[in-house]
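User: Predict the structure for this protein chain, please.
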Amino acid sequence: MFDFYKKRKIFFAISTFIIMLGIISVLINGIDLSIQFKGGAIIKYSFIGDIDTNEVADKASSVLNRNTEVQVIEDMATEGKKLVLNLAGNSGLDSSEQQELDNILKTEFSELNLQLSESNMVEPFIGKRFLINGLIAIALSAVFIILYVRFRFKKISGLSAGVIALIALAHDVSIVFFSFILFKIPINDSFIAVTLTIIGYSINDTIVIYDRIRENKNLPKYKKVSYENLVNNSINETLSRTINTTVTTVASVGIVYIFAYLYNIESITSFALPMMVGLISGCYSTICLAGPMMIMWQKKKAV
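Assistant: Here is the predicted structure, written as structure tokens:
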């Protein structure tokens, strides 16, 4: 039987190191909000041939007088290419600006047969409201889950179960957030979707261990054992289930990521990659952090 409580300092050190690495990454890279949250425009053109993205960015910036990021994406299924212009700013593009941009690009790069395929505009106030509502949804979901745990596990100290579950969730949400920064994925609607999914997944794993602790507590063979052994045994008994579930889920999401990457489906890759990190973090926090913290809480309470 593995003693998770005795190894708690190692687990706490690992989590602290990862979080510090994430904070340093934020300080170095900053937080990149997508156009969905800060406003602006995304314009996509299909084209044929090769293109200098820096030259396109310079042309677009000179016409619109705002910073423009340009990238080329390729669809492996159709072998088609798309030119993507990200125009961040305090406003979208009106029809005259869009027409002016369209004319200059088609004139300057006439050999590429540029065809407008997609145009998305987001006003800043809409993006800000979307971000705030998303964060409120995350906060409310966390609070209601903790309240549920608080009352569901009264027999094993509902308050400590709720507080520790909240700490584990905060750990997992932080790891998801840092994964967006480390992989240089703009904070977008995928962040909200991944975070809400991980909150549900992580708390489900934690509840499995809480359930086992509560069941074991009523068994005659655990009547005389210490709380430390009760929790350690409960974690070990659910270990294979927790790991197998996580490995299966990560493998499934990994396959989705590989295909999305090969076919250049950015909306899915920006979801699947942080999702895999969040799944692993949820498994780790459930096994290595929640249980030992429960024991620490009870030991401190007994003093």
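The longest helix spans residues 266-302.
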